[in-house]
Amino acid sequence: MLKHIPHRYPYFPPASADTPTARKKLPGFYFLAAAILAGSLAFGAPLPARASSDAELRLDSHRAMDIQSNDIPGWPEGPVVGAESAILIEAETGTVLYAKNIHQQQYPASTTKILTALIASERCGMEETVTFSYDAVFDTPRDSSHIAMNPGEELTMEQSLNAILIRSANEVCYAVAEHITETTDWSVFSGIMNERAAELGCLNSHFVNPNGLPDENHYTTAYDLAMIGRAFFANEMLCKITLSRRIDFPATEKLPLGKLENNNMKIIPGGEYAYEYLIGCKTGYTDIARSCLVSSAEKDGMKLICVVMHDESPYQYQDTIALYEYGFSNFEKINVAETEEKYNIDNTGLFYSGNDIFGNSQPFLALNRDDFILLPRTASFDDTESDISYDTGDENQAAVISYTYRDVPVGSVRVSFSASQDEKSLFDAEPEEAPQPAGPEPEKPVVFVNVVYIFIGVGCLGGAALVILLARMILRNYAFAGRKRRGRKERNGRKEWRRRNRRMYK
After folding, report:
1. How many domains does the chain have?
2. Where are the beta strands (DSSP E) in 329-390?
3. Is 498 part of any domain?
4. What residues are annotated to the active site?
5. Does an H or E element contain 317, and which?
6. Angle in degrees, 0-180, between the axes of helices 186-199 and 113-123, rounded to the nearest 10
7. Domain boundary pick from 430, 448, 468
8. What is the largest CA-CA distance in the chain?
9. Pick from 330, 361, 383: which residue ends a domain?
């Protein structure tokens, strides 16, 4: 289950608003190609063989780009990749392990569909019927990915998600968007996409359609796709679909024998670049976006998410595998509750001496035993710095302790109000012990006082006192009323006796 991590500004900040983005600036490989051409013409030399194609020029240009995570002192050096933008994060903490132009805006192509599928899985039942309208079918270019649906044909939502994630079917994305919004105004669904993206922590994304078809206003970043991926790859059903080799669809008028669609992603089991630890993936490609791949892999309890954008085929697979091997080899999970000493004392409770009066003392606060941080294998927990925030937004949590290593956020631990007997209690750092005088120190009796029981006892005594006070007030009012009624009766009796005596003596 995905754990909520309070959003923090990433260590690798996005470029300022006035910085030209990748989609608006002339790609660097054009300058490189022009320089090579000019040099060859000037000296009459032939062009080098490795620069014989635009793809190779792009790869050379991208491989020469700076890798920002490699500039961190003491951080493991990451591999050189052919992608213009690439990121590797740990899924649960969101720790960025590898960063290369992660906030540079790029066209996502069909990797857009992981957000569409995620929204559909969150809002719809898998048995719901998706009906294809004329707009859903004919707004899809015939030369793009599709499964040849006709207006009026139907699929279940489960079949629709299979078509989106396995065959990257663009008309199915439109049909799902229409099913959710009940309109063919695609901007309504794109508004839902942008809202959900912001909730997931995206910083520089803008979606205008549900399928990733080319549009200058449809863009995202490697970092933002990784944030979306944290939610997408936490959904076991969606992950399972992406690893399926093929899907069967019911027969239609155009295809009476039904449809059998193959998964062409080469990194899944059985593929040319199959990666044994892969748990899910989605590819994307257009002429301008080039090859994109968002994926997730898990090994030895560590779950990573990788995004490569503006790469060249088949290097999107090779680069992804290289990044996974880098992450699994150079980083490890550290359980905070088992390691942290600065904020912990052993199970002593709030007050302690030699005898337990009220029972076993229990800590009020404790570090969550499931929380961990990510560190390079060459680093020590003592090398981290921590910061405590009390604004958690969760009534069951007292605080959150966030950790950084070399100014890079590496995870956090929750501080809970309730704790079990074997958990550590959270307090300030233990003060240094004052020097003790020489000689044997007499033993002092120690009494454990469980403050919880004291509070309960005080509350019970206060409640009892209040009940007694109320009872006395009620009884006092009752007695006064009784005396008042008896006094009135006696006075009336005396008056009647006087009237009788007057009659007798007249």
Report:
1. 2
2. 331-335, 344-345, 355-356, 366-367, 372-376, 385-389
3. no
4. 110, 113, 168
5. helix 315-330
6. 90
7. 430
8. 160
9. 330
